[in-house]
Amino acid sequence: MGERIYNLAFDFGASSGRMVLCKLEDGKLTLEELHRFPNHEVRVGGHIYWDLFGLYHELKQGLKKAAAKKVPIQSLAIDTWGVDYGLFDKDGNLIGNPVNYRDSRTDGMLEEIGKIIPLEELYNRTGIEFMYFNSIFQLYAEKKMRPVILDNAKRILFMPELFGYFLTGIMYSEYTFASTSQLLDARKRQWDYDLIEKLGLNKEMFGDIVMPGTVIGDLLPEVEEETGLKGVKVIAVGSHDTASAVAGAPLESDDAAFLSCGTWSLLGMVLDEPILNEASYKYNYTNEGSIDGKIQFLKNINGLWIMQNLRRNWCEFEGEVSFPDIIREARAAKCQDFTINPKDPRFTAPLNMMKEIIGYCRETGQGTPEGLGEMAMAIYNGLTEEYRKSIQYMEEITGKTVTCINMVGGGIQDQLLCELTAKKTGKRVMAGPVEGSVLGNSIVQLVAMGEVKDVQAGRDIIRNSFDVKIYEP
Length: 473
Fold this sequence. Notes:
Radius of gyration: 22 Å
Low-confidence stretches: none
Domain Carbohydrate kinase FGGY C-terminal: 258-449
Family: Belongs to the FGGY kinase family.
Number of domains: 2
Distance between the termini: 42 Å
InterPro entries: ATPase_NBD, FGGY_C, FGGY_Carb_Kinase, FGGY_N, Rhamnulokinase
Mean pLDDT: 96
Largest sheet: 7 strands, mixed
Keywords: ATP-binding, Kinase, Nucleotide-binding, Rhamnose metabolism, Transferase
Enzyme class: transferase
Number of helices: 18
Strand content: 15-25%
CATH architecture of the largest domain: 2-Layer Sandwich
């Protein structure tokens, strides 16, 4: 039996978080979930925030559970959802709680920034699709919402780096996450300081960028004492959870697409260089940072957040229901044709998702969905239609023909979603593994610690360790 290598992967999603103990032995990875916890948004004073210190408390609870396993853990790393951040003063203190990206403070910010720099020029510099919650719009909104905090901010840390700072006392900025801000030069893979200054932001807030696979440092003595976990290195991986998910997707060729399917659906391809042209601007595709300095050319699509909220509201108003129940109801629905547009702003952060689905279908002349199954089918049809269009436009822009779609993430446990994705796109779907972000996080740690040659070798290990399920169109 070969040597056992252990590391910890923290994966914070927009609705839940978990810590997983990853073990490499005899060329195979195995996973053991040690800690899982909800990630609730908090509404205060008309705004939406993250429960930051609650999340950090859960992170430390995970470290305590890991220490109790009494195995030699080499390293840990954190990935989270994109764009959100915390601001710090000159003494390294957090000033103001991080605001949730779904907050309405960014309303109108795109138009205001468009008066400062033409949007086509902004896209040509950063390569990032225009989404109302990108960090660029959040930071500009700080001027109105929290000007005193912004004036006193000396450093910005995005969410994974913020947790990393709490653990190590070291501030850093990781490439894949920085790219989601729409403040990074897509070609140079560095901050666009000219753009930052044009927006009236303090360029000193933005620290040097490190690439995935950088060893950041050791846990603070106080963290070791509190958790009992000692001698563990903290690694900067693909800190944006999409980058980790793509690293964990066992793509079979350069022409394979990935679909990271969770709260959001991220559908795209891995490229060596960004695509910054008229077509990518027209179709609003994004060039996010990927592992090894590559580019994730992708489309962000409002994902299973809509289904999660449908379930939550149904449980509140109609009675308890599980996701398998929803799938059964959808398959049995009398009308299978209702469709929503998941990009419609009404589905971003509604108080009642059922009401919005029914309202949308009525207002678009489709009639009224009756029951849970027909509302669920409206979501399934809306999501998979977006997948179809995204594949079509991506093939047009890149000049490539997508050979298959590798779906990873929790959404692949929904067989109906996988079936409809293959049917609607006309592409073969490889579903698996479920824990894409965790696996990508882990293999980058293994590369950083010299245990695995490179990310491709890591993908080979994943392919040999986990089964995938094939869905034919």
